[in-house]
Amino acid sequence: MAVIQAHSPQVKGRIERLFETLQDRLVKEMRLRRIAIKEAANEFLTAYLPQYNRRFGVTPLNPTDVHLRPGRGVNLDRCLCLKTDHTIRNDHTVAHNGRLYQIKEMVMSRKVTVEERLDGSLHMVSPQGENLKYQKIVERPPQAAPPERPRKPRQSPLPPRDHPWRTSPLKTVARKKIYTQTIK
Fold this sequence. Notes:
Blueprint (H helix, E strand, L loop, with lengths): L12 H20 L5 H19 L19 H4 L2 E6 L5 E4 L2 E5 L7 E6 L5 E4 L5 E2 L1 E4 L31 H15 L1
Antiparallel strand pairs: 1-4, 2-3, 3-7, 4-5, 5-6
């Protein structure tokens, strides 16, 4: 049996329709029962979902469960997390969600992937897949002022005496007239 993967909502229409129905119907059912807190909503769902499944459930033509267990080398914590690529700055820091983190190891790459796991932990991984040691920077260090260089007074360069800027435009026009008259 070949597995056909669905990569768009149009292909997954059946499940998308179910989600749309549940999002519409559940809100109305909970509003009718005046449920406003999460604990009451969870309690309501334990009774509502079996009734919904009995009423609208369809028995599949092939009851075989085709779910596969992940392989031995698959780390689900690394697969099921938010991954963000960042560039390592020149001072070996990474900015993520408005916070700075100092990388404590030498990294051969200029990129790092930050993984936010489901348990709330944060991991930095190099492109080679190695976990990197890092430390959160609580307070930004003050920037060092650049060293002051002695400044020489600026001198405007003066054009030489025979430069065209030193001649007046009237003299230039007069020279052109004389030159053109002599050529004719």
